[in-house]
Specification:
CATH class of the largest domain: Alpha Beta
Low-confidence stretches: none
Order of helices and strands: EEEHEEEEEHEHEHEHEHEEHEHE
CATH architecture of the largest domain: Alpha-Beta Complex
Mean pLDDT: 96
Helix content: 25-40%
Number of helices: 8
Structural class: alpha/beta
């Protein structure tokens, strides 16, 4: 089968299309024929070596497909079942080993590609606005990169919970997408200072929370957008990771809170995973949540996918077609 391997860390050029043998599922594992592979920024971090993973490795975490082989101890799924997952190492491949506890059944009327497009980013948006900073009616949130995969879903979920969204984007096309997702105001940070605009739009008070998946380039500005005792939720580092920071600065800025959450700690049990995934898939199924698949690439064109993602040329979700 085809898979995307990383033998050394670096830029998109280290992504290699390889032919490898078919893997065998362990006792609680399933072999799944992938219908689509999700591309996420966490894959970029892994490719660059930020997580210090051993190499060689098969990249990717997310996807959806059909079960073709079962380990002897699998009890929840059967051959032919349609499943999706957010965390299964080695998901940039035509066939993927998925632990039974990481898989979720895909509703019968939902395309597998749609499920693959919403699992990781959908559950990330879910925990950000329900657990990290639970949005209540009337709360005002600044969402950076609101036309991206997480930002587009997060904007919609905040609106579902009664919040107000100020979105930042970089192009007119992305502005339109953010507005379609429900953003109340949109700041074009290529045309205006997002700190000054956020303060103006909040009457000088600042926002209750900033959801910042951009990281290094927006971190200081995000702090300056917060109200007293506001929350900065750093959910990614598309522009680079935030490193050294003097915690003493949080006091004079308004007794602020800063956190850096991750999905792994918000799907800690099978019950929590199913609760979040079923919410997300259910909202997609009933039309409450719209998933935009912005770009699709052949598996062997994965370098192009990573280049476009890092250059912010993508809108919504990026998928790989494994066949």
């Amino acid at each position: 089968m085809k898979a995307i391997q990383v033998s050394r860390f670096g830029g998109p050029e280290v992504l290699e299309v390889t032919d490898i043998g078919m893997p065998e599922p362990g006792p609680r594992e399933m072999l799944v024929k992938a219908a689509a592979n999700g591309v996420n920024y966490v894959d970029v971090y892994t490719r660059e070596g930020q997580y210090d993973e051993p190499v060689p490795l098969i990249l990717g975490l997310e996807g959806a497909g059909t079960v073709v082989s079962l380990g002897p101890a699998v009890s929840e799924f059967s051959l032919g079942d349609r499943v999706a997952w957010a965390v299964a190492a080695g998901s940039y491949a035509q066939y993927v080993i998925v632990d039974e506890n990481a898989a979720v059944a895909v509703p019968p009327d939902m395309p597998l590609e749609t499920a693959a497009a919403v699992m990781l980013q959908g559950m990330a948006a879910h925990f950000l606005c329900t657990s990290t900073f639970p949005i209540s009616p009337g709360d005002c949130a600044l969402v950076h990169a609101a036309a991206g995969g997480v930002g587009h879903l997060l904007t919609q979920m905040i609106k579902m919970r009664g919040g107000r969204v100020i979105a930042t984007v970089s192009t007119g096309e992305k502005e339109e997408l953010a507005r379609q997702a429900g953003a109340d105001e949109v700041i074009r940070y290529d045309q205006a200072d997002f700190v000054a605009e956020t303060r103006r739009l909040t009457g000088g008070a600042g926002v209750d929370v900033v959801y910042d998946g951009v990281g290094q380039a927006t971190f200081e500005g995000s702090l300056a957008c917060l109200r007293v005792r506001g929350y900065l939720v750093v959910s990614g580092g598309a522009s680079g990771q935030v490193h050294m920071f003097d915690l003493n600065r949080l006091n004079p800025l308004g007794s602020l809170f800063v956190t850096r959450p991750g999905l792994v700690h918000h799907r800690a049990t099978r019950e929590e995973l199913l609760s979040r995934a079923n919410d997300v898939l259910g909202w997609v199924g009933d039309g409450s949540l719209h998933v935009r698949i912005g770009s699709r690439y052949r598996l062997d064109d994965v370098r192009h996918a990573h280049e476009d993602l890092q250059a912010r040329r993508t809108l919504g979700k990026v998928l790989l077609d494994p066949w």
